[in-house]
Amino acid sequence: MQESAKEPQFDLNEDQRAIRDMTAAFAAERVAPFALDWDRERHFPADVIRETGPLGFGGIYVGEDVGGSGLGRLDAVLIFEALAVACPGFSSFISIHNMAAWMIDTFGDEAQRQRLLPKLTSMEWLASYALTEPGSGSDAAALKMRARRSGGNGSDYVLNGAKQFISGAGDSDVYVTMVRTGEDGPKGVSTIVVPKDAPGLSFGAVENKMGWHMQSTRQIIFEDCKVPAENVLSGEGSGFRIAMAGLDGGRLNIAACSLGGAQAAADKALAHAGERQAFGQTIDRFQALQFKLADMETDLQAARVLLYTAAARLDAKAHDASKWSAMAKRFVTDACFDVANDALQIHGGYGYLHEYGIEKLVRDLRVHQILEGTNEIMRVIIARHLIGK
């Protein structure tokens, strides 16, 4: 990172700076040198992901009694930003795992916490989150996948349906899954933790997608899939509340992944501009390019301050934390995609080549404007807060 990015105009304490620096050192050594190979080979680096467990990244904001780090949301965005400098796809998977672990920690009973979380916080188990379905994306309350009680005294649930666009599907060990156990609408949704070896669980083909090549995205198929009733979080009917509770943090996390990736792109562009010769001088001597670099730096710092402020408000449980999370997600992911795209343009034809790493960043960051709630939905949320509806 450039020096200006290391010390933003935000009051980070000594512990937070240490967390950020430790994460950046790990990412530089264990992720960055291999990210292009993982992207090209569509390789899921489960071994390296599991190395983050001893660093505390398996349960960043999970209770310490089950092996979590017990950190806050600002601490978390520092971690995801630093990881994403090396690879946004890697960082985003760690974010997804943490969302799933946090849901179990926050909404599970004590028996569920003690049974499931130690293996998740250590990264012995990897976790995915399954909400989206083939026919329901932004309208999460419209999900159709059914779960019905079965077995003696209702000791099991039998699940039927499918989940779409699930990151880590087929690679993760557990899936925190939203299902319909009751009436249509939000009140009929429940949350159940599905182990990978549950009978009746299978996975679709790996999607051939634009970015995030290092993590698989597949459909999850449930055909009379049997799961113990003890895996339901907070009882029937709590699923929509659980899903909505996870959104603010998820939006900050994916914004942090955008910020780290865009910082890497800007750093590459600045270095390239200082080396590339044209018309007898390096191209960073041309004012048109200087203005572009200035705008990129301004957008990065504006994004960073907005993101850190939103995370601090979520930590403080501010009444408007959801509005700030939506604003941060919308602005940061849009601005950072533009920064990465401008970095590609500065590289010219070299930016279009895989080996320079810029086109990968552009591809990886594009999806951040869609997932965790599209940026159009973010505008809806912000507007509702403004007009009181």
Properties at a glance:
alpha+beta, 10 strands, 12 helices, disordered N terminus, four-stranded antiparallel sheet, four-stranded mixed sheet, 389 residues
Describe this structure in words.
There is one protein chain. With 389 residues, the chain is of the alpha+beta class. The chain is 50% helix and 14% strand. The chain is built from twelve helices and ten strands. Helix 5 (73-86) packs antiparallel against helix 6, helix 10 packs antiparallel against helix 11 (358-366) and helix 10 packs antiparallel against helix 12. The longest helix has 37 residues, at 239-275.
Ordered list of secondary-structure elements with their pairings:
Layout: H1 3-6, H2 14-30, H3 35-41, H4 46-51, H5 73-86, H6 88-107, H7 110-121, E1 127-130, E2 146-150, E3 156-167, E4 174-180, E5 189-195, E6 201-203, E7 217-228, E8 232-233, H8 239-275, E9 277-278, E10 281-282, H9 287-315, H10 321-347, H11 358-366, H12 375-387
Parallel strand pairs: 1-4
Antiparallel strand pairs: 2-3, 3-7, 4-5, 5-8, 6-7, 9-10
